[in-house]
Specification:
The chain is 35% helix and 20% strand. The protein is of the alpha+beta class. It folds into 4 domains: 89 residues, Uridine Diphospho-n-acetylenolpyruvylglucosamine Reductase, domain 2, CATH 3.30.43.10; 119 residues, 2-Layer Sandwich (Uridine Diphospho-n-acetylenolpyruvylglucosamine Reductase, domain 3), CATH 3.30.465.10; 114 residues, Alpha-Beta Plaits (2-Layer Sandwich), CATH 3.30.70.2190; 85 residues, 2-Layer Sandwich (Alpha-Beta Plaits), CATH 3.30.70. The strands form 4 sheets. Strands 12, 13, 14, 15, 16, 17, 18 and 19 form an 8-stranded antiparallel β-sheet that branches. Strands 5-6-10-8-9 form a 5-stranded antiparallel β-sheet. The protein has a 4-stranded mixed β-sheet with strand order 1-2-4-3. Helix 1 runs antiparallel to helix 3 and helix 13 packs antiparallel against helix 15. It binds flavin-adenine dinucleotide, D-malate and zinc ion. D-malate (MLT) binds next to helix 12 and strand 19. GO terms for molecular function: catalytic activity; FAD binding.
């Protein structure tokens, strides 16, 4: 029996038709828990509008009835932002039927897409016109552009191209009262006051529903080289990225750090992954160079940089991929870490950032404090080190039960976030606050920043119906 007033249920049915409503408990389940099964909620209904007009009509009807909405894309988010609460009174608004690529404008180097387009499909559409859409992340086969925008997603190419904020020129948004803001401008220059699109990017569905976006395209990559490199320490990684940047400039498009623990999990759980080296090393980086020229001397550059680093002891060993299959195999080792960690029992995710120069000291301090206070926990540190962004994830000790580890989760988190703040860092570099970090943000964000954020929320969504309980 739905918690919704019958007249609202009827109105929503009229707006989206039978294909756009999911009322059945069993059919709703996929929308009510996240990829890791770390968050679970209940909903009065899942509604799946197929156009911006339908989204606007749904939002208007819910606004009039005082019913809260939880926007959802591919449901790959890692902080519970797309999962409703447990009241069973919220409506999940899924954008997965809004899948049109509205316009490709190669001369303007832009593409206009709807919010439900899967990231990988957008990458393919860009490739079809000889362009690159550079956002790239492990969930690209299922996450949506709306979700990427709402979380200001990062991923493995931020080093060269920036995050979703940097890739966006215009947005179309349904506001909390159902009005449509058409900000779909493909302009690289527009100084007519506050840049409203940036309010919605990274707002995690709390200010409105993003229905479409104009995104930047880049020249297609025509050559690339990829290496898997063993290192003695995180400091060696920071030294190496500086060396490679000086040598290769913008051709350095990927630089991903991984601890041995992370790689061990992948070797244990992800089929087809093999250690490229005969011996165990403490740290690894995956380096990628790319260029728009088909014959760019990338291998020579890589060999020069790695050769110098080997001589100085900054690099212990390296393999360079000799084929596209080997490139894919190396990336699979990196991108498989999230999945592999799921097989090791409960885990705690902390996607922190600090200045790149502070990464080694952060790891040293956080490792030491955790090991002193929580013996046996496994630290799974990896990530986008060139952006100063580490996934400093924690898995339970192999021999312990789940419950005692879960009971320590909050204390572990505070140790990590305190160290993050000691280095003037952020408690969320890319996944957002959602429900996971909402409370923590109260401790670790400046009170004035929170006050400004609350006043923006209050002025745009005074009834508090857009994704309540998330972010703020
Ligand atoms: P959802 O999970 O459905 O939603 C995420 C948030 O956005 C929620 O708060 C939701 O309410 C809101 N939202 C969704 N659509 C809209 C919309 N149209 N309008 C308004 N609000 C909306 N993230 C990174 O940044 N970098 C990574 O490298 C990365 N790697 C990942 C690897 C794996 C294996 C997985 C599972 C996730 C990874 N993520 C990463 C996290 C996640 O994929 C991204 O945050 C992604 O951008 C979420 O997109 P989604 O469509 O799944 O959004
Ligand atoms: C990644 O970069 O692989 C994800 O953002 C990290 C994660 O799953 O914790
Ligand atoms: Zn990441």
């Amino acid at each position: 029996m739905s918690h919704l007033p019958p007249e609202l249920l009827h109105a929503l049915g009229e707006i989206v038709g039978p294909a756009g409503l999911i009322e059945d408990e069993a059919a709703m389940q996929a929308y009510l828990s996240d990829w890791r099964n770390a968050y679970r909620g209940r909903a009065a209904l899942v509604v799946r509008p197929a156009s911006r007009e339908e989204v606007a009509a749904v939002v208007r009807a819910c606004h009039q009835a005082g019913v809260a909405l939880v926007p959802q894309g591919g449901n790959t988010g890692l902080c519970g932002g797309s999962i409703p609460d447990e009241s069973g009174r919220q409506v999940v608004l899924s954008l997965t039927r809004m899948t049109r690529i509205r316009q490709v404008d190669p001369a303007n180097e832009t593409i206009t897409v709807e919010a439900g387009v899967i990231l990988q499909r957008l990458q393919e559409a860009a490739a079809d016109v000889g362009r690159l859409f550079p956002l790239s992340l492990g969930a690209e086969g299922s996450c949506t552009i709306g979700g990427n925008l709402a979380t200001n997603a990062g991923g493995t190419a931020v080093l060269r191209y920036g995050n979703m904020r940097d890739l966006t020129l215009g947005l179309e948004v349904v506001l909390p009262d159902g009005r449509i803001w058409d900000g779909l401008r493909g302009l690289r220059k527009d100084n007519t006051g506050y840049d409203l699109k940036h309010l919605f990017i990274g707002s995690e569905g709390t200010l409105g529903i993003i229905t479409a976006a104009v995104l930047k395209l880049y020249p297609a990559v025509r050559s690339r080289t990829t290496a898997w490199v063993a290192l003695p320490s995180p400091q060696a990684a920071v030294d190496l990225i500086g060396r490679m940047r000086a040598l290769c400039g913008d051709r350095l498009t990927g630089f991903e750090l991984m601890s041995r623990q992370s790689v061990e999990f992948v070797l244990r759980h992800v089929a087809g992954c093999n250690d490229p080296f005969g011996e165990v090393h403490p740290w690894y980086v995956l380096i990628e160079l790319s260029d728009t020229l088909p014959e760019a001397p990338l291998n020579a550059m890589l060999e020069t940089g790695l050769g110098e680093a080997l001589e100085r002891g900054e690099v212990l060993d390296a393999v360079v991929a000799g084929s596209e299959a080997q490139v894919a195999a190396l990336w699979k080792m990196r991108e498989g870490i999230s999945e592999a960690q799921n097989h090791e029992g409960p885990s705690l995710k902390h996607d922190i950032s600090v200045p790149v120069s502070s990464i080694p000291a952060f790891i040293e301090a956080a490792d030491r404090q955790l090991q002193e206070a929580f013996a046996g926990v496994r630290i799974v540190a990896y990530g986008h080190v060139g952006d100063g962004n580490l996934h400093y994830n924690i898995s339970k000790p192999p021999s312990s039960e789940d419950a005692p580890f879960k009971a320590q989760a909050e204390a572990i988190m505070h140790v990590i976030y305190r160290v993050t703040c000691d280095f003037a860092g952020s408690i969320s570099a890319e996944h957002g606050l959602g429900q996971a970090k909402r409370e923590a943000a109260r401790h670790y964000k400046q009170p004035l920043e929170l006050e400004l954020m609350r006043s923006i929320k209050q002025s745009m969504d005074p009834a508090g119906l857009m994704n309540p309980g998330k972010l703020l």
